[in-house]
Sequence to fold (133 residues):
Amino acid sequence: MGMGYAACRATVLDEKYAETFPEWCRLASWLGDDIEDFAYYISIDTEPDPEFSDWTQEDFTKADNMFEEFREAFAKRHPGLAVCLGYHDRSQDGDRYDDIDGHYLEVVGFWVVSPEGEKIKEHVTDCGFVQFG
Fold:
């Protein structure tokens, strides 16, 4: 099977809106620059390997639990919608024209524009990027 680029889409929640959730603020503050690493691990559905990372199992579990608190708060405020953390490395896996580079918060269930989606549509952007593989 040949290698090539595949088109990807993500409905991305802007960080300013995410900052209206104290749960997101606590997580982002605790992670600091490590948010990129955490988003990467979450996006590939794995835990960090201590051989290649400074992350401990306790750190990962704490960050994962804090993110789950944010997901629950988001779902409570916006029933029918969910938020996921994703990661895309434009230079390694994509293209210079991609809208996403690094971590992003994806809103799931948005484009079946629900009454809850209508309430936040000005805070959400539909982004495109390519993935090499």
The helical segments are 15-18, 22-31, 35-43, 57-77, 90-93, 115-120. The radius of gyration is 15 Å. The first strand starts at residue 5 and ends at 13. DSSP finds six helices and four strands in the chain.
